[in-house]
Every structure is written in C-alpha cells, then in structure tokens.
Specification:
The structure is a single chain. By secondary structure, this protein is mostly beta strands. The chain is about 5% helix and about 40% strand. The radius of gyration is 19 Å and the shape is elongated. The relative contact order is 0.29.
Length: about 140
C-alpha cells in the first residue's frame, strides 16, 4: 500500500484540540484538507506526522506551542487611542481587524478591551502559546 512521503499531494481529515479538550478547528463535513507535503502551508509538524501514513490510517499527534504558532508575546498587545480608528468603526471585544504596521505590512489583530478612550489590540496568533493536539486521518495519496 502507498505511504505518504514528502512532495506527495494528500487529502486528510482532522480535528484540532487544545489541552482543555476544546476543538479549535476540524474538517468535519467539509471536503478533506488537500495539501502537498513539504510546501509548509500548514504547521510543519502536522505535515511531518502524515509522512509514512497509509490511506485509511489515523493517528493523534501533539504539537507543542513552539512548533505550532509560537509562544504568546505580551509585547504584541497594545493600547491604541480610539481616535486612530475610523469614526464609523465600533470596535467590540473579540473582533478581528486588519492593522497596518509602520513598515507598511498588514497584520491581523484581535480586540481584547474597549474603553471610551482606547482600544486594546493583540497581534498574537489566536493559538499562540497553545499546545495543540490533532486527530489525523489520511484519506488519500493523490
């Protein structure tokens, strides 16, 4: 039977969970995730776990935060004066916004606090600092 190797296009079903058991993402009823192993379009440790699997095989892997979305950095949390936002924008806690860095790059931030005069934004990835567990099923090596 064919085993997945680097460079192969594969289809997988998966469920991603946090340490407390909460599911943060799953392929569920969607089409299986299609990736080319080695392109690094997903977490590299996720890709590496697929290598050697055969279609129909399942496994559970644990990926520490440092190998997933990295550690949580407090310095990426900033309080911004509300006047810097468009007057039409009413920021809400949990809202995802696009921000422009001083060098012109665009990044995603999450609103974590809102007051009359300021908005606290967090530029960390939503899963930064989290150890991740994935249940993976290899559906097909294309």
């Amino acid at each position: 039977m064919t085993q997945a190797k680097s460079g192969d296009t594969v289809k997988v079903r998966y469920k991603g969970k946090l340490d407390d058991g909460r599911v943060f993402d799953a392929s569920g009823n969607r089409a299986p995730l299609k990736i080319i192993i080695g392109e690094n379009r997903v977490i590299p440790a996720f890709e590496q776990a697929i290598i050697g699997m055969q279609p129909g095989e399942s496994k559970t892997i644990n990926i520490p935060a440092d190998e997933a979305f990295g550690p949580y950095h407090e310095e990426l949390v900033r309080m911004v004066d509300r006047s810097t936002f468009s007057p039409n924008l009413e920021p809400k806690v949990g809202q995802r916004l696009k921000a422009t860095c001083a060098d012109g790059r665009s990044i995603s931030v999450t609103v974590t606090e809102v007051s009359e005069s300021a908005v606290t934004i967090d530029a960390n990835h939503l899963l930064a600092g989290e150890d991740l567990t994935f249940d993976i099923e290899l559906i097909e090596v294309v």
